[in-house]
Amino acid sequence: MNAQPVQDAKYWRERAVEARAVAEEMLDPETKRILEGIAQSYDRLAEHAKTREDAEAKKADNAGT
How far is CA 28 from the centre of its chain? Predict the structure, then answer.
């Protein structure tokens, strides 16, 4: 796990889950749509973080060989 939570894919996935849970409670369709969009943005951030984590792990593996 990274020292900074915002660089951790799990952190962003959890934020996406939270945003979707809040969106489900919304009665206003526009508010629900905005929160679902926020959740999708968090999903993209999680993917970017995962890519970075994978690259760092590969770099560490290559340094050890």
Answer: 25
Reported as a pLDDT band with limits 50, 70 and 90, residue 15 is: very high
Residue ranges of alpha helices (H) inside the chain are 9-25, 29-64
pLDDT value of position 2: 52
Tally of CB atoms within 10 A around 49: 20
By C-alpha distance, which of 6, 9, 5 is closest to 57? 9
- Say if 29 falls within a structural domain: yes
Domains of the chain: total: 1
Q: What's the DSSP call for residue 1? A: -
